[in-house]
Input
Amino acid sequence: MDASHSHRHPVFCTVVPPHLLDKAALSGDSRRADLAQRTLERDSLLRTRRRVTAVRGIAPALAAPAPDASDDPRRTIYDCQHRTRLPGKKVRGEGDGASKDATVNRAYAGLGATYELFLKGFGRQSIDGSGLALDASVHYGEDYNNAFWDGQQMVFGDGDGDLFLDFTVSVDVIGHELTHGVTQYTANLNYHGQSGALNESMSDVFGSLIKQYSLEQTADQADWLIGAGLLGPNVSGVALRSMKAPGTAYDDDELGKDPQPATMDDYVETARDNGGVHINSGIPNHAFYVVATELGGKAWERAGQIWYDTLTGGQLTSNADFEDFARLSTAAAVARYGDGGTEHLALQKAWSAVGVPLAG
Output
């Protein structure tokens, strides 16, 4: 980890956005409302704690890189036993046999899948590029309806079994949260407004790629959903978000309708959720989907490589907006694949499709 990274103060990033939990907290079903409210209160506490830590200038105590620079991951899974003290009791380490707890095994496998894509797809050794150990805690709290990256590790709730199921069931959710760590160590995108929406979008993009890589899917075979299988049996919807068709992931009496826009025509101006970081991320998400499907084949090989080059290339500033990312991603496509090639044309088509101009 270089010196500049040591001064970066990560934000608290959840996979379920607050606007969705806000809706659930207004439910006429008292249990649903109480559990949603409890999750919101826990998230608010953790978010405030992370912000205060940053203001005080306390850097997170991150694990040291592997001394042997091995390409193998170093995973450790902890069990919070339905309490909120982290990390909890160690229940599985790297190379240990499978646990009797399916949640532990899913978390272990998801960390491995994420590590493998970044290593084999992009030559990145763990999320910091230097072999950082990957830690995760499961069974966090009582019926906790979220999963999050806290700047040091992954944490998974079990869900309430009604609106949300166990948060380890979707490998893209695991990949999404760990990618917040990759962003933390690279462009360090501010978690507000368009830079925050880009931060969220990076996690959706690589979360989806991790699922596609694990399933050996091509772009046309992928479902392009984030959190498929996570919504409970009583929810009308298929996932938390859709990259293929933002705004269509759910339409539920309790949770409302998916508010994500697909283009700048429907960009949402809001003070909630750090300026709508989970909402407006639908725009760059859809741009990536267009690029990946235009190029075809395995999305991590070309489209994903362009996004990775943009995120890690050193030109993307922490306060970048959509136009900045569009310009830099197009330049990254030209740098790697040449001017006027298929990749360059796919980038131009994608950003035009979502209404983000390619200035300069």
